[in-house]
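Budget justification note: compute hours in this period were largely spent on complex prediction jobs such as the one shown. Inputs:
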Amino acid sequence: MTLLQLENLSVTLRNRRVLSDVSVSVAAGEVVGLIGRNGVGKTTLMRAALGLIPASGHSSLAAMTPNARAKAVAWMPQTREIAWPVSVEDLVALGRLPHDDRARGPVEAALRHMALEPLRNRRATNLSGGEQARALIARALAQETPLLMADEPIAGLDPEHQIATMEVFADIAAAGRGVMLTLHDIALAARHCTRLIVLSENSVLADGAPSDVLTEGTLARAFSITAYHAQSDDGPVFQPLRRVT
Amino acid sequence: MTKALALLFALVLVLAIGSLSIGPANLPFADSIRALLAGGDGPLTLVMREIRLPRMLLAVMIGGTLGLAGAAMQGYLRNPLAEPGLLGVSGCAALGAVLAIQTGLSAAFSLALPLSALAGAVIAVLILLVLTGPRGETLTLILGGIAISAIAGALTSLVLNLSPNPFAANEIIFWMMGSLADRSMLHVWLAMPFMIVGLALLAGVGRGLDALTLGEDAAAAMGFDLRMLRLRIVLGTACVVGAGTAVAGSIGFIGLVVPHLLRGTVGGRPGPLLWVSALGGAAMLLSADIAVRLIAPGRDLKLGVLTALVGAPFFLHLVWRSRRQRA
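Corresponding output:
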């Protein structure tokens, strides 16, 4: 089942073309990684897909009414804002706002999934950065949407929690939901995403399985780097090596 | 949270009765309440219904809406330093009132002052809405409000500066300090419609403010129309602050301090904070208005002076405490 369909999406911000004719999709069961240089338009792509900024072309999510969209997709912006000293439990429960219910089940499940039960009564503003990131992911999980879109959800996490978070996304996908995320760690992207979309020069350079996408040519064009590539028992290993000039 | 609401409601009720029973005419409590409820021709009924009742009602209305608007502004701007006066509405309302005193309009007919203040408030809101436009970024709203406040303050000073009549200048200064003394039911009826409209606008913003805890992008993606939310808060705050300033002058610190004080009772959530702040604001202004009558019965101590005098050091204490918590 397709959860997100973008057709010829183009975005112009302040007279600058940021995205040109992007056509991609996300289906149930997928963890789709969106990678590319800083400023290539990854965040813009997600925000335009969500209808948060004006765009030309078609986005299946932007076409929905705000209420229907809030039940179709949960969005985790890159800025991990927690404005008030609410408890972790109350923070996660904010995910129920679009449903306008106080259902405890999804909140408890989300707390459990992100191993936040011991922290449930702590003030979210007093948590470490990594704990806050986990609480915000739990908030998005509690929204119980078919699709989860996250902008750099693992930036700033320690290696264990980076892997743990990617595993949570894999779990969600295995349960029939879909995940689209941006990330900069090519190694983790190769290892944990079922599909990668590489953005370069305002458009899609490559879209496919990690091992098909992360070729020497694509890495050179998209990132100006070379990478060491090997196959381990746990899956593909990518280690960026040096810049190509 | 329901416990906090119930306690605050009880507190407001007790203070309201207290407010009714205090005044220069030393009336027996039971008699005065009976006169208020049952009526009659005596002077007791007149004192209760025409002097003390409007004073109590205005304290509840103005204090309550200042607390509510303060909580809404802080929630919307996600900043604990925000307060209802930030929009420049109270400054422009004060300017309108000052002009009414200066030109002698207020001496000619008594409602000229509040009506002129309301006109000032409306002008402030119109400028603010034109300035922020349909997109209306938060920063534009704050900076616009600060600019409007500054202009209103400068013009108020200019009026005082050029005032040929020292008595008018004196009256202006005293009016600006804020007071609930000598207000009639006419003032209550004048402020009431604006207060009700403001209350209706602010009543529906709780869920949106809760969502804004996660930032504007996350709230918008959760289906909340932030433009509508902002419009409701700006117009609602303008209604209640404009009406409050028009009938009572400038009363500071309630909208800033009350939400701070009560944030802990609702676990920091901005939505539930609205209603406890409304009750808290009513309780605070009732207490202050009782205090000015008890502390200096003959001296007409101004309400705004007392709220600032008590509010500011208290605020300092909160800053001190939160500084230690962060350390």
